[in-house]
Amino acid sequence: MIDTGNIVLPITIQCRLLNLSRSSYYYRLQPENELNLRLMGLIDEQYTKHPFYGARQMTESLRRQGYWVNHKRIERLMRKMGIMAIYPKPRTSIKDDSHKIYPYLLRDLPITYPNQVRQLPDITYVRMYHGFLYLIAIMDWFSRYVLSWELSNTLDVHFCLEALHRALKSAKPEIFNTDQGSQFTSGAFTGLLEQNNVRISMDGRGRFFDNIFIERLWRTVKYEEIYLHDYQNGAEAYFALDKYFRFYNEERFHSSLDYQTPGEVYYAQRSPMENMLVSPILINN
Fold this sequence. Notes:
two-stranded antiparallel ribbon, alpha/beta
């Protein structure tokens, strides 16, 4: 939004009009060094295998691989990657206490048809040859169909909103479920859902079973695509993931879907009797 070539309004005044400090405008994020990037890649692989690992367990795992690291460094890197251990405890997503928290609507709810419930899985880390990105996807819970996804180099709300905009263009769900992360409790995100008359559900504290369910998507994407490639840049990562999600939706069979693809289940026009062929997901307390 800053026009560096404007000869009428200097940058100082433009920053003041945007309520932005000049130091924020001139700040450039310092990239992680090669060792930290290597550690982040190893943390991501270990977390994908064992999502219950906290910083101390992760530190011990890295030490056994020959990296004599301090647990404070690993805590910082895990925080930067946006990951925390999954186990029964208060939610660890970074939340904003000024944001409204919505009730959890999925308790004992049988999910029996497409567009009944959509879920936005936790933001996940995508390693590249140099650097990293963050990936988000919106999934239909009944069919496992990925309706939209986005990549970003920051953990702000904007790429989450872009994914939500695109998902709502295809069809509107009855319920949209998220965790209590600040991106998803923001007024911009919840406001867009309310404008489209979508009921909002948010995971309550300690709903780690729901996290385990949605982590399966990221585990699949990482083992079948991300870990097999060293993306040279963001454009290469984008086109590779676009190709993979097309495969995931239209060609990859799921045993839980009676060996159909997510696309076949999502787009099928089924009667209630036919829907019994695919076992509904029952969200338990």
